[in-house]
Amino acid sequence: MKRLAFILAALALMPSTAFGAVERTTLPDVEDEVMCPVCGTPLNLAQAPQADRERALIRRLIAQGKTKQQIKDRLVAEYGENVLAEPDDKGFDAAAWIVPILVVVGALVALALIVPRWRRDRGGSESDDATDPAHDEPATDVTPAEASRLDDELARFEG
């Protein structure tokens, strides 16, 4: 019974494209993934006349029923590889995807190795000292002369 409920939940969460419905491409879908070839900014932020022409081309391709990938391919053919806002997933451009991931993973590994060492060097937390019964005992390295002087000082402040 649990297995059937899981399968039904998974089917409900699947995107509509899994059942044959094709999602229609929109201008905002493409606009934030391509660049204006003149000013080098994302098309959704660009204000150049060339950006307006590029948007018009995208609208025409959408009206023809082209997919997002087909539109991007056409833009690359028209304006070159620099029109894509995302780096390529091979060659030197792959470093734009891989390096940040490696930095985060390296930082997590370093923290996993360093934090236990810091805790060990500190000798535990302060809360461990508060629960230690030996923590409340008076120091035993006080001489009788020092104890007498401390008592005199305390009596002077209390009186």
Description:
The chain is mostly helical and 159 residues long. It contains 7 helices and no strands. The protein has helices at residues 2-13, 27-31, 49-63, 68-79, 95-122, 126-130, 144-158. The radius of gyration is 34 Å and the shape is elongated. The model has no long low-confidence stretch (mean pLDDT 79).
Dominant shape: elongated
Radius of gyration: 34 Å
Strands, total number: 0
Specify the number of helices. 7
Mean pLDDT: 79
In the predicted model, the low-confidence regions spanning at least 5 consecutive residues are none
Sequence of secondary-structure elements: HHHHHHH
Cα end-to-end separation: 80 Å
Strand content: under 5%
Largest beta-sheet details: none
Q: Strand pairing plus helix content: what structural class?
A: mainly alpha
The percentage helix is 55-70%
Architecture blueprint of SSEs:
Blueprint: H1 2-13, H2 27-31, H3 49-63, H4 68-79, H5 95-122, H6 126-130, H7 144-158
Provide tags for this entry.
about 160 residues, mainly alpha, 7 helices
Brief overview:
By secondary structure, the chain is an all-alpha fold.
